[in-house]
Amino acid sequence: MEERGISQAVIQRLPRYFRYLGELKDEGVERISSKELSELMKVTASQIRQDLNNFGGFGQQGYGYNVEYLYQEIGKILGLDKTHHFIIIGAGNLGRALGNYINFERRGFIFSGMFDQNLDLVGMEVRGIKVQPMESMERFIKENDIDIAVLTIPKAGAVAVAERLVQNGIKAIWNFAHVDLNVPENIQVENVHLSDSLMKLSYNLNRYMRENE
Amino acid sequence: MEERGISQAVIQRLPRYFRYLGELKDEGVERISSKELSELMKVTASQIRQDLNNFGGFGQQGYGYNVEYLYQEIGKILGLDKTHHFIIIGAGNLGRALGNYINFERRGFIFSGMFDQNLDLVGMEVRGIKVQPMESMERFIKENDIDIAVLTIPKAGAVAVAERLVQNGIKAIWNFAHVDLNVPENIQVENVHLSDSLMKLSYNLNRYMRENE
DNA sequence: TAGATTGTTAATCGATTAACAATC
DNA sequence: TAGATTGTTAATCGATTAACAATC
Lengths: 213, 213
Prior knowledge:
The structure is a homodimer of 213-residue chains.
Chain A: H1 8-26, E1 31-32, H2 34-41, H3 45-53, E2 59-60, E3 64-66, H4 67-77, E4 84-89, H5 93-99, H6 103-106, E5 109-116, E6 125-126, E7 129-133, H7 137-143, E8 146-151, H8 155-167, E9 172-175, E10 188-191, H9 194-211
Parallel strand pairs in A: 4-5, 4-8, 5-7, 8-9, 9-10
Antiparallel strand pairs in A: 1-3, 2-3, 6-7
Helix pairs in contact in A: 1-4, 2-3
The structure holds a DNA duplex (24 and 24 nucleotides).
């Protein structure tokens, strides 16, 4: 499990580079220097060069970076050249919203199955995928080469479901449940705690208001 | 606009403290030491004490922290004792999912209005709130004391809509559009870039797979 | 070639952890 | 009072920024 020593702070910035480079590419920009990119993204040129050099030298002295090439390379670093199949656990509003989001497919994430405890939702279709009962989950994971699970269920059941997912070979969990999962460290978990995010916004909003009236 | 010098890293951790304390409170736990809490949350006791002491001394030597009191105090720091009205711009799947999420009300965030460009969606109801056309937005914001806008529209229109929101007195934007907004610095923006989050998961998943086969 | 800009080392800054005196 | 645990200062660690030699 040899840690490659690249900090999560760096990883977190890669998708943003990827996004800006994608836009530059679409605009037909061929090359860009770290300085130009830094002005666009409002970060330091130093940081861009340091971040990229964690993964290799993608630029050329005196020239800068080739936009198309760098875009492709960051995509590879992020693993977007690979295909992963994912399932969504929880067919509520949020689960259905994510299931309907077609852009994930463009990045290699294939929506393959959806599950819910609530039998009223079973049979419902989301983008051509039929919601199945929880009992079918184990078998489905194994037979369909699923390695990512998206958890959009209430926090009460989330920890137990996460354990079941792991036992059946899930390698990564995108967790929208408002609870910290308890899984082995070789399982990748990415938390999206929406209410935490809203509370942070709330803090900043109230602090600003306090200071200004 | 005097900066109070509390880092966003600290702010980001507050909702998690709040969540754990809420659970302890519900379990009837009366007091807890930074050491016990640190074991529960898998952080250092030092960090907990440092974080809290940015806002004042909430504990007592030899005793620890009173759970109920600390919970309340963190809630106040986060501004959860105040009420804020928010609107959702974009009545697509994600917008509707957020509109249907009732827990925000419990924290003082009141879902007050919803808007969409698509006239097919106008008139639709989400939790008792009728979707209105974009033209009604300006007036609605002013007449209903709205200070938070949730942006769940495609990135193409997001930057322009954000500017309109700001012109009409919105103080904070919870941005789900996959683009960086360009608003004055006194406007609070909290980004939730879902695909960035998924790409980070992808990186970690692929790195782990690379290292293990 | 001269100019530009990278890759990388060194300096700085900030955040986390450790230690301990204060005190309940 | 003695023991426990905070609040806070000092030490360490890591991340960011600056500087510059290498090189296209």
